[in-house]
Design goal:
This protein has 259 residues and is of the alpha+beta class. The protein is built from seven helices and eight strands. It folds into two domains: 166 residues, GIY-YIG endonuclease, CATH 3.40.1440; 73 residues, no CATH class. Strands 1-2-5-3-4 form a five-stranded antiparallel beta sheet. The protein binds a DNA duplex (20 and 20 nucleotides) through strand 4, helix 1, helix 2 and helix 6.
Length: 259
Amino acid sequence: MTLNIGGHKFQFVCNILPETDSRGVISELFPQDLYEKKDSVKLHKYGNGPFCKFKIPDCWLGRQGVYAILIDDNMVYIGECEDLLVRYNSGYGNISPRNCYIGGQSTNCKINSNILQEIKNGKVIKLFFYETSEMFAVEDDIISRLHPAWNSKSGNKRKHTELPKSSAKTKSVERNRSNNSPQYSLLTQYLLNLSGNEYKLTYDQLEQIVEGELPNSAYKHRAWWGNGGHSHANYWLDAGWQVGTVNLGKYVVFVKAGC
DNA sequence: CCCGAATCCCCGTGATGCCA
DNA sequence: TGGCATCACGGGGATTCGGG
């Protein structure tokens, strides 16, 4: 079974099936409780289980490329790996106590927890894989075009020393004042659909559009709305708009670039 | 005062390598 | 093999500075 994602033929790996007990009930694990230093280190945002345990078949050992997680045939996550078996059987599929705490691998916890939740909701989780040495470029391309729900908006900040420049990863970010993270790409989409040469948006409207809170700087500093000097300015510049008038904390007037 | 540009810092991500 | 510490990297947030 294969699946076309972003123009690439992904191969079916397996359904992700968490380990169950003798009655067939999913075994929910709380590795965070087992960590020796739990009184001196804080849990990270994804570290508060429950988690589950799962494995993929051994034949995927050493397979380099891009993987896709699907829920009921909807693609929700794209990632790349040097070794698919290690990535799943030692990473996502088996959460260690240390990884639940600050400094641990929060991504593993996030993906594992999401998978467990979806399966408990009766969903079917499928794993697909596209074998390639150009995994960074392929991953980047698919994420930028399809915006999988579970992919953080943040950059994958791993070593690039072994990578050609053309495949350097750039993801957007997940960080923010709360769990209510703004998704600025939604602003780009919104502006792209506007007609006219000028458009006024209140802060409330902006926060509805980006489905999250604007940062404090957006309220306090006019510079945040500058049309240059910040990477986030690209979200409106890429849509062909510039920031015109700003009334801090109240509204922002966007004007069509070139007007 | 407005605006753009520059800069610093924080932190998420996931690969790597070491150790038991 | 599993658990863990460490690291490089770069985007976003926050702030400052200088020119007009």
